[in-house]
Design goal:
about 140 residues, alpha+beta, seven-stranded mixed β-sheet, 3 helices, 7 strands, about 25% helix, globular
C-alpha cells in the first residue's frame, strides 16, 4: 500500500553558486558558508517560503546567509536527497555577487571566498560538489 501524507511531500529549497572576481588577481572565487548546526561547508541555500518561487527563494537565501545581493544567471542542476526520510529538492542558479557584506549569525557563522578547486575540496557534501562542477563546466566566466 502506498503511503500518503507529509513524508511523501518533498521539501522545496533553492540556492546558488555565488561567484565573484577576486579583488586581488581577478580570478574566479566561489562563496562557501559554514553552518554550525551541521558543522559543514556548503553553498548558500534554504527552504522556500509558502508561495515563494524557487528563484525568489534562492535570492532571499543568498542575502540572508551571506549578506550579499546577487544577480542570478543560468539555471544549474537540482540536487535531490533525503532528510529524515523525506525527499528534499534544491534548485540552484549561478549568481554573481553584488553589494552587501557578511555578518555572522546563528545559522551561518562563517563565509569564505575560495578559488574553484579549493572550494570544491572544502565542500562537505558530494551533492554540492556536483552542482559546483556543473557551474564550472558551463561558466564561461
Amino acid at each position: 500500500m502506498a503511503s500518503t501524507g507529509a513524508t511523501d511531500t518533498p521539501i522545496l529549497a533553492a540556492g546558488a553558486v555565488l561567484w565573484r572576481r577576486s579583488p586581488i588577481d581577478g580570478g574566479l572565487e566561489i562563496a562557501l558558508i559554514h553552518r554550525p548546526k551541521y558543522d559543514d561547508w556548503s553553498l548558500p541555500k534554504g527552504k522556500l517560503k509558502r508561495g515563494e518561487t524557487a528563484l525568489d527563494g534562492a535570492l532571499r537565501e543568498v542575502r540572508e546567509e551571506t549578506g550579499l545581493a546577487c544577480v542570478p544567471g543560468r539555471v544549474l542542476p537540482s540536487s535531490t536527497y533525503l532528510v529524515d526520510g523525506r525527499p528534499k529538492i534544491v534548485r540552484y542558479w549561478a549568481a554573481e555577487a553584488g553589494e552587501g557584506s557578511f555578518a555572522p549569525s546563528r545559522e551561518v557563522d562563517r563565509m569564505i571566498w575560495l578559488p574553484p578547486t579549493a572550494a570544491r575540496n572544502r565542500l562537505t557534501h558530494e551533492r554540492d560538489r556536483s552542482v559546483l562542477d556543473a557551474f564550472l563546466r558551463g561558466s564561461g566566466i
